[in-house]
Each structure stands twice: as structure tokens, then as C-alpha cells.
Amino acid sequence: MNTKIISTTILALLFVANIYGQDTYQTFTAAGFKVKCGCKLYVNTTFISMAKQQGMNNIIAAYICTENEDNPDIGVIHNINIYDESKSYKNIQPSGYAYFEKKYLEQYATNLQNSGIAYTYTTYQDVSAIEYTFDQQGLPTKAIIFLKNKKSYLIQVGTRKNLSTKFSSLKSSFAIL
Asked: What percent of the chain is helix, strand and coil (3-state, nearest 5)?
């Protein structure tokens, strides 16, 4: 009987910890952000390696995690990528930063448009951003890209259920340190 009570108590505590664990921030001091996420983010070494092979050497951070990965109907993939854009700002006066950032987003929008992906301009983290929805290998995905502090940030969520809600949740909890 004692074993049953102890086992039940431990299961209940794990359940409660899991529920409340989703409401706590994961902080990545080296990458300069914190976020609430339904799974534990880890460094996406595969993406970083592939990007570096393609000549992208400005990746500061790439994080990924999945919820319910064994059930494609309710599974969720979270991605956060951060790039160092400081070299692009090198020969630009601070008064020209806004123009550079506008042109950066316009080029990104052109690339989306050329790929047949619809997008909208928005304001996020007090700066201009582009939000878009696309299929990533058959998985409906929402993303937002923006520049801040000479870095570009890409936040993505992919899922077949409640995509807008899950994306909004991740996006609203993302904070630059």
C-alpha cells in the first residue's frame, strides 16, 4: 500500500512539474535570449553543420526541440536561429541602420515571394519584421524574422494542430536579454 501511495505521489508530482515546466523560461545567456517552450530546446548541431558547409559562418545560435514527436498529428517542432549581421553594418553609419534593415527585410520578402510564400510585414520586439506561413516538408509552419542589435532572429513553429496558437505562444514569450 505504501509503495502504491509513493508511486502515485511521484507520478502526480512529475505531472505537475511537467505542466508548470512549460510556463518557465529557458534562458540562453550566451545566445542572448530567453523563451517559454513546451519542450527543452537544444543546440541544433545538424543545422549549424549544414549551414557552415554552405558557407554561412555568421550563425550565433540554432536551437530546436520537439513535442509529441512520435505522433505526427499533434507533434510540434520549435526552431530559433540567430545570426550575427554585424559585418553587414560595418561600413554603415548608425543613421543608415534603419535603411539597411529595411532593405534586408525587402530582400528576404523577395526571396519568399520568389518561392511562392505569402508574407506580411509586422512590428515585433519594437522593430519591423516579416511573418509568414509555409509547408516545411509537408508540415505547416509559421515563422517570423527580424533584425535587432545587429543580429537577425528567426523563430519558427511547425505543427498540424493549433499552429497559430502555438506560434503566438512561442513568439510572445521570446525575449532578448
From this structure: 35, 35, 25
